[in-house]
Amino acid sequence: MQQILFLILTVLSHIGASLFFAKPRFNKIITVAIWLVYGVVFLVLPPEIPPLNYFVSFVLHLVLFFITTTDRTVEKGFLFFSYAATYTCFSTLFNMLDNTVDSMVSKLVIAVILMAIMQYILYRLLLPSFKKVAMYIREGWGKFYAVVLSFWALIVGQSLFTMMQPMSSEESIIFLLTMLAFCVTYISIFNGMKNIVELSREKQKSLHTELLQAQVDAQAMEAERVRQNRHDMRFHYQALMALAKAGETDKIIDYLKTRSEILEATTTGRFCENETINNILKVFYQKATAQNITMEIRAAAKPDISVPSPTLVTIVANILENALHGAIEAHAEKPRITVSIKHKAGRLVISCENTCTPSLNFEEMPEYLQGIGIHSVMSSAEKHNGSCRFSAADGVFSCIVIMDE
Fold first, then answer.
1. Domain spans of the chain?
2. Please, are residues 386 and 403 in contact by the beta-carbon 8 Å criterion?
3. Which residues, listed in sequence order, are joined to residue 348 by a DSSP beta bridge?
4. Which among 373, 371, 380 is positioned nearest to 310, based on CA atoms?
5. Model pTM?
6. How far is CA 3 from CA 7, 32, 46, 88, 111, in A?
7. What is the pLDDT of residues 203-258, one digit of tens each?
8. Which CATH superfamily is domain 275-404 in?
């Protein structure tokens, strides 16, 4: 009876991990059915040797977890081994208490309480913290894996020893200290990850601040230009009036043409009707020009896009910042950035190409190149049912983002 209940709790725990630890590949009914088969297998054909029981269960759980979930492999792997280490901790703790309690009811109550505590730790503490920071971790997973695998191996060794024979008091203390070290280490890991999150947020804040200042400067320049034009307007009227009285029509035309050219040369320029995107393009056009980089812009963004301004800043500014850095680092004879923003079939299409290092060549961006900026673009686009594509070939880096308007 005790084994059946613990098996039921185990299967329920594994089902929860497959449904909530990563994006489920199948619907809930299929996922639950797959794990029920897992439970039946171990109910009907349980291995007699405890170590074999554990490792068969572990391998089957690993395979089924990867089959029933999506997301990136590195994230799923880290979550799986974190779950396996945590589950093994509580399973071993139950075995320790099982040897000291005679009442079947008490054992069942202890099993339920321990499983409930484990679920709380996994789903209320570990998983939310992980999801907040995992999107910003694009490289360096090796050190995190080394930590969790080391603890998993240590905990499994102690757990298998407990299955074979009861722990002594000293061994129990060592195991409890191992659990404590495991918890403290995880807290340290997530604190380190949070520093990466803060770095990304600070970067986005600096982008927003820079663009806001650019908008203020542009409005101040526009106000000054309007004031100057108003001041000069009476002189232009007097000159035109004198030419009109003299009947010199050709000179009037030449004068107006000259004034039009001067006005065109001194204007701040406007790339599109959307204020947010227009300001971003202005800022990076000025930056590119200062670096002697040719920047071609074809923008037709509507002023009433449903995408919030902060999201537009995150996507467009990060794309252009990466393009600017790429063009600078390429050291090409004629560095160039080409930007196109348009609407197509009810979706906003943002594409950008820039000169890059000729050795850079890929059709799908490798993870080691996905920095904070790139991932900010990807995660922001996903929130608006969007997708991103990055590629590089023949010294040209290309980025295309398509999302709902």
1. 2-200, 204-266, 275-404
2. yes
3. 343, 403
4. 380
5. 0.51
6. 6, 20, 11, 16, 10
7. 666 666 666 566 556 556 666 666 766 666 767 667 777 777 787 777 777 777 77
8. Histidine kinase-like ATPase, C-terminal domain (3.30.565.10)
